Amino acid sequence: MAKIQQLSQHVANLIAAGEVVERPASVVKELLENAVDAGATKITVEIRDGGMTFLRVTDNGCGMSPEDARTAFLRHATSKLRTAEDLAAISTMGFRGEALAAIASVSRIDLLTKTSEVVLGTSLSLEAGVITEESEAGCPDGTTIIVRDLFFNTPARMKFMKSDTVEGSRVAAAVQLQALAHPEVAIQFLRDGKQILTTPGTGDLEAAVYCVYGRESGKMVPVDSKWEGYHLTGYVCKPTDSRPSRSMQTFFVNDRPVKSRLLIAALEEAYRNRIMGGKFPSCVLHLHLPASAVDVNVHPAKTEVKFLNEKAVFDCIHYGVLGALNKTPDRPQVQFKPNVTPTAAPAPTAKVEPAAPKKTTQGSFFRTMGPEEFKNFTAAIKDPPQPSRLTAAAVAAAVERDTAVTIHAPKAPIPVPPAPEPAPKAEPLPQPEPEQQALPMPEQLPWRVVGELYNSYILVEQGEEAFLIDKHAAHERILFDKLKENQEAITGQYLLKPVTVRLSPEYCGALISNLPMLQALGFDLEEFGDNTVLLRQVPMDLSTDGAAEAVEELAANLLAGRQQDAQSIRDEILHTVACKAAIKAGWHTDPAELEVLVRQVMEREDLKYCPHGRPICITLSKKQLEKQFKRS
Ligand code: ADP
Ligand code: MG
């Protein structure tokens, strides 16, 4: 081995640059953080060619003295940290004193900076980290840094750069992230001369979120909760607006964007059983906690953090988001075609408007109903319901809704859970019962069930609003909650005649290897040879008809859920049981049973989505109808 030598400053900087300066976006992130730390209230970022040839960040912060300007480009030169103790309570974005040295070592830099105490500022030029020019210069208070020809002296790194378009988009994402991190700073971003983003810098997160996400942000749910000295604020999406990836999950810890599995897990826990598999919630969440409760010095780019008390952090996010979701009145409104009422969609304004109706070019009739319900609804309109109990539309709805639906009405009465209040005997309709309204919703107006549409949707009137309740979704949710609440074994009913179910070998194996769990859920089955299982007992709520089907679905869930935790597998199984046991769209349901169902939906604030994440109830207001009929 060769003789040990200390690395030169330049080589050390290049190594550090490898960690901190990965691409133009990382340069922008560091320069933005420096500007924020300098107390800037206004920052402008400009790039050309994806930031590869030209990148400028201008701020109106405190600026630097000529001496500081020179020192700033030395490695481990920082004004933000003096002692080891300081490291335990960092309140600035930067503290490592590495960024400027690293950036300078792989580019050409021009710096212009001035503090408010002096008349003339300082102009510095550097090439590969070496100062090539220095002079006094007239300039405004604050700092401007221009970074040119990034990686001009490190061709190996240059090779890893993607197209200017890709790099430019990454810069845009980095600016967006800082804009959301610091709503108190007015941030402007120009890409090849075009303005891409401006935030007002009012300190209002809502405004920053609006600037970044546009009007979509109006549909998000505000979060604001305190938990053991931690403060969580921000916005989360409604379960129905979940996304196919986690790309829209943004977390800040003490204003620093972070990536954290803990935070993701806590967020997603709040959405458990509200969103479909393969979908993910989106969020912009700020967690503020004492600087001593978090270690930010665990990653060169400071994107990872370590929490002192992970449980408290998890609970803070989980319960904060859960509370926000449960609090929001979340009954999507029926949406009418925008061209029927051209004034219905207000022009975009600078302010976020909660749930502003969105113009859809498709002219979809029920935007918030979802395509499935919409299809059923329009089909039913074209094809008016027949007097028979199962109309074509209702069957279509049932088939759409439940792939495994049976068209026969159930033989046994449908099990309906008891009402939470001293069970009021269901009476003939209509039936306004103001004094029997339960407490959870204050000042609740009396309601009445008007009837049922297409054997699927219960129409309820309450004051100036009407509700359409998806009876299957509602019942499924209620059963699911009941099953879930009951953490002990679920009562089973013995079948008079055991049912044999033939399955694939994998399915059989999945069931047999999970017998104790299935038993706890009310199933009693045994291997019957030849890829067949014998079903002796099924959960109380499940009709014997659906048992075989449910068992097959359970096996599929168990197989698919191999990697999941026990809780998720149990939830999946409960979904299946609840779905199979719930009253079906398209079936006739006794009005008294509907009444009990409606009571729960109207009185329980948490009944918003079926366990698959479909809405249970949508609103149709008197106002909306008056508009449609040109009465207002
Ligand atoms: P760090 O931010 O970790 O301290 P940097 O290398 O990013 O390290 O910056 C070094 C120092 O340069 C900072 O501590 C700060 O004093 C000064 N500095 C950098 N950018 C600015 C700016 N935009 N305005 C004022 N001072 C700055
Ligand atoms: Mg810095």
Number of extended strands: 22
Number of helices: 18
Mean pLDDT: 78
Note the overall shape: elongated
Low-confidence stretches: 339-442
**Strand fraction band?**
15-25%
Strand order of the largest sheet: 5-4-3-6-2-1-7-8
Q: Helix fraction? A: 25-40%
Radius of gyration equals 31 Å
Ligands (ions, cofactors included): adenosine-5'-diphosphate, magnesium ion
Structural class assignment: alpha+beta
Give a short account of the largest sheet. Answer: 8 strands, mixed
Briefly say what this structure is.
The protein is built from 18 helices and 22 strands. It has helices spanning 9-20, 24-37, 66-71, 99-105, 155-158, 164-181, 205-213, 261-270, 310-327, 370-382, 392-401, 471-485, 505-512, 515-520, 544-560, 566-581, 591-603, 622-628, and strands at 42-48, 54-59, 108-114, 121-127, 130-137, 142-148, 186-191, 194-198, 221-227, 230-236, 249-253, 256-258, 283-288, 294-295, 306-307, 447-453, 457-462, 465-470, 492-502, 524-527, 532-539, 617-621. The strands form five sheets. An eight-stranded mixed beta sheet has the order 5-4-3-6-2-1-7-8. Strands 9-10-13-11-12 form a five-stranded mixed beta sheet, sandwiched between helices. A four-stranded antiparallel beta sheet has the order 16-17-18-22.
